[in-house]
Design brief:
Shape: globular
Oligomer: single chain
Number of strands: 19
Length: 431
């Protein structure tokens, strides 16, 4: 039974995904491009990068740049400072002997300011295989966890937010019991006002600590939407509260209890996503069959995880999924965010217990078990979620899948990517 409590709350607006905004345009533009139009090569094939420095659309002659070339997130194999006599120059980048990504980063210094850009060449990316272990008791571990979760009463409460409601949509803050008695999960629920049965869309968050506004736009299209937070705190507080928590007690949360698979921070998060679905499918307005999940970065990871754990999910849309093949660094290549084993963290995390724990939470091992159709989108230039790590997860998916590449994007998206994935999900939900 869902209890309803009504009181007025301050409206705050934010995005559910991490770093989706396109970078701000700059007066001076550094353009780096691979010589294949699709930036993709065969292993052993030589790549070239062209670097151009432009102002008002024209090359800046004698522009001074420094560049480096090497496998993404690894130490560069070539570094040099040069002057571009004509404002543009093509560089020989060499090749790769195994599937992966070769990156060129260029920095121009103009009038005392630095301008940076990059391009990344993919070598047989569809052949990239994961490095993370696939535990023999992975399914048993998560089956037990979900069984324990099912024993916890939902104890759901809905608080109407009148100032956020529209002519067509009611907006609520949702407060439900999560993976243990006394733990809570909060989110913003948007429900069409018109009487009827509707599909549902769970929106899972990128990394960080923030408030949420709810997805009213899709609710006005006839879809129940639920945006959730993962930290067990209300999602409608003053933004300063989240800033303080992010710099304080929740700083570094992705590593909490990494040495214990049963207490690791993301266990409550993954189960919380299933619990959010428990809530959605019990709403009287839910149509009983059409449920999807979407998110970006950490939310991209959670989209895949949620679908793999919960067969009630019928479709997923994931932007640049994090927590993918995080052990790549232990095998001489890039690993996924939050980079547990890169050069800055390896000394702390390269421990038997921590390596064993991540195998139960790495997106790769959930991707292996997906059965639902999904749409995915990312770019080759992502420096937060390296494409090597994302392809390691994508390549093991046996379910129907579609990848929409926007090559030059980093950890952000073009509007076209949002439209592509959003339209795909809405189309599936409303078929």
């Amino acid at each position: 039974m869902i209890k309803k409590i009504t009181f007025s709350l301050i409206a705050v607006f934010t995005t559910i995904h991490l770093a989706f905004a396109q970078p701000t345009e700059k007066f001076i533009k550094v353009i780096v491009a691979a010589d294949h139009t699709d930036w993709t090569y065969k292993v052993g094939e030589k790549a070239k990068f062209t670097i151009s420095v432009l102002q008002n659309g024209n090359p800046i002659k004698n522009a001074k740049i420094r560049y480096e070339i090497g496998p993404e997130k690894m130490e560069p194999t070539k570094k040099e400072t040069i002057t571009l006599a004509t404002g543009t120059q093509t560089l020989e980048a060499g090749t790769m002997t195994t599937a992966g990504f070769l990156r060129c980063v260029a920095i121009a210094e103009i009038d005392g300011k630095e301008y940076r850009n990059l391009a990344t060449a993919g070598f047989n990316p569809i052949d990239i295989q994961p490095t993370v272990a696939n535990p023999s008791d992975f399914d048993a571990f998560w089956t037990e966890a979900k069984t324990d979760l099912a024993k916890i009463p939902l104890d759901a409460k809905m608080t109407l937010l009148p100032e956020r409601c529209t002519e067509k949509v009611n907006v609520y803050q949702v407060n439900i019991q999560n993976f243990a008695v006394g733990t809570r999960l909060y989110g913003i629920l948007c429900v069409p006002k018109k009487e009827g049965k509707y599909p549902a869309l769970l929106q899972v968050p990128g990394a960080g600590v923030r408030p949420y506004a709810g997805d009213i736009a899709n609710a006005e299209k006839g879809i129940i939407t639920l945006q959730i937070g993962i930290h067990g705190i209300p999602v409608n507080l003053d933004p300063q509260v989240y800033a303080d928590l992010g710099r304080g007690i929740l700083n570094g949360y992705p590593s909490y209890n990494l040495d214990d698979k049963n207490r690791f921070f993301y266990k409550r998060v993954y189960l919380g996503c299933v619990r959010a679905n428990d809530f959605l499918v019990n709403l009287p307005q839910y149509d009983g069959k059409n449920l999807a999940v979407t998110g970006g970065s950490q939310g991209g990871a959670l989209s895949i995880v949620t679908a793999a754990l919960d067969s009630r999910v019928k479709w997923l849309g994931a932007f640049y999924p994090a927590i993918s093949d995080v052990t790549g660094y232990l095998n001489g290549r890039a690993g996924g965010w939050p980079h547990y084993f890169d050069k800055n963290s390896r000394a702390v995390n390269d421990k038997k217990e921590k390596i064993e724990t991540v195998a139960y939470y790495d997106v790769v091992n959930f991707a292996r078990r997906l059965s639902q159709p999904g749409i995915y989108s990312w770019g080759y230039n992502d420096e937060t979620c390296p494409p090597t790590s994302m392809y390691a997860a994508y390549n093991v998916i046996k379910a129907p899948k579609e990848l929409y590449l926007a090559l030059e994007t980093g950890h952000w998206t073009y509007p076209e990517q949002q439209e592509k994935v959003g339209n795909w999900l809405v189309g599936k939900l409303k078929e």
